[in-house]
Structure formats: structure tokens, C-alpha cells
Amino acid sequence: MSDSVKIVASNRKATHEYHIDERVEAGMVLQGTEVKSLRAGKANLREAYCVVERGEMMLKQCHISPYDHGNRANHDPVRSRKLLLHKREIDKLGKAAAQKGYTLVPMKIYFKRGKAKLEIGLGKGKKLYDKRKDIADRDTKRRMERAEATRGRDE
Known about the structure:
Elements: E1 5-10, H1 14-17, E2 18-28, H2 32-39, E3 43-44, E4 49-53, E5 56-60, E6 63-64, E7 81-84, H3 87-98, E8 102-112, E9 115-125, H4 128-154
Antiparallel strand pairs: 1-8, 2-7, 2-9, 3-6, 4-5, 5-7, 8-9
């Protein structure tokens, strides 16, 4: 049996803004209309972040659009959502995030074996020069690949 993974939303800016040291998979406590919206791909992680409150991991500011065919029982788009992790994982991530410069960044939401999952990254904020270096490295790599492709055609 294979692990079929369907990515719903990803935070593409997270790797640009943070050095991701560790990644953890967490389950999500969702309402029915939220699951339907996620299956339709209507989620946004751009402003989202994770915090530990009263011994529980919470996802804040994640926007899951209201379900199109929902009724008055539709969900609040930016409500706080509880994340399902083991107690020792919550403690470990909470202590790590309390260190100076570290934060818990939601990386992507996906379905794995029919269950909604969130990948959380423990990240340290990048400085401006780090971002510039990453962009320069990416441009250099792109130029090298282009040169390889054109060199192969000349022969």
C-alpha cells in the first residue's frame, strides 16, 4: 500500500524567509466544511504561524476559504486550529521555538491516506544578505543548467 500524498497548499516563501532546521508532520482538527474546502484546494498559509498554548500546538491565521456549497454551519476562515502531536513533540518544539530567533512555520498542508496533515518547520529567520546569497546561488545554478543544455545541442 503506497502513501498517496496530495498537496493542498504550500508556503513557498517559508524557505526564502527562514533556515528550516527540522520538519515535523502533525494532524489537524478540522470541521467538515473545512475538509471539503481543503479537498477543493482553497487554503492559504502565507500569514500562518504555529504556537504552543496551554500545552497544545495551535495553527493561527491559516485561511481556509468557506465551502462554496456550505450553509449557515460553514466555518470561520481564519479560526485557530488545534494540531495533533505527541506531548513530547509539543514540548520539544515549544522549547526550541522559545529560543531567540526561532519560530514554528507551517510549510504545507496535504492529505495522506485521507487525513489532513500539516508539515511544520522549525525555522530561524534569515538576514537580508542570506536571502541575496540564495538568490545569487539560484541564478548561477540556472545559468549553468542553461549552458549545459545549449552545449549539448551544439555537438
